[in-house]
Amino acid sequence: MKKTLLVFGGVVLAAAVIFQIKGASRVEPEVQPAPLKTVLPAEIAGWTAIDQPIADTAEMQRAVGELLNYDDAILRSYRRGGQQFDVYAAYWRPGKMSERLVAGHSPDVCWVAAGWSMIAKDAPGAPPALGAWAPAGGQYRVFRDGRGAMRWVVFWHVAGDRRIEYGQGVPPWWAVFSDLRKRGFAQRSSQYFVRVSANVPWEELNGDDGFRAVLRDLKTLLE
Questions:
Q1: pLDDT band at residue 18, thresholds of 50, 70 and 90?
Q2: Three-state SS across the chain?
């Protein structure tokens, strides 16, 4: 019995490796995207826009010793008085980075590792949808740090024409088989990961024309 299980386990592991290799060998043709710094507005009325080093993000701080390996990225902060919202966006060409590695640097992983506590996750009472001007499929979170500072977060992970959902966290290794069933061997698409975070609830920003303009630009990018 043990021998049979070992043989079966070996076959499953070998199949997973083969599927991953074949998936990596089939990439979608790339349509050259516009630079991210030109997609987001550099100025919006009433706000000061500041581009910050990507290395300051929790994603990169956690990635010491490894590379996110993106082809383009931006972290732009918009500030007005005591209000602030940040847009972090990264792009990977087809075949450059696996979906699971990108998922491993989501706020669910990196922010928690950086000392933040997730206190709401797509649950009743979490921030409402941001309206028709925002990209569809946003995944909402609320985080709090050790000093009590709050951050309201929404993010999107898009691979080709598919949205990657994080309802169950980062997919397990065996999800490669369900991926194969859904998409065959063509699994290496271009990817975008976009995160918007704010130091105030979305209700305080929803009616602002500048904030809506940023969301509309993100919608153009992701849909």
A1: very low
A2: CHHHHHHHHHHHHHHHHHHHHHHHHCECCCCCCCCHHHHCCCCCCCCEEEECCHHHCHHHHHCCCCCCCCCEEEEEEEEECCEEEEEEEEEECCCCCCHHHHHCCCHHHHHHHCCCEEEEECCCCCCCCCCCCCCCCCEEEEEECCCCCEEEEEEEEEECCEECCCCCCCCCCCHHHHHHHHHCCCCECCEEEEEEEECCCHHHCCCCHHHHHHHHHHHHHHC
Six-digit token string for 67:
């590379």
- Whether pLDDT at 145 is above 90: yes
pTM of the entire predicted model: 0.77
Write down the pLDDT at residue 146. Answer: 93
Write out the two tokens for 178.
């369900």
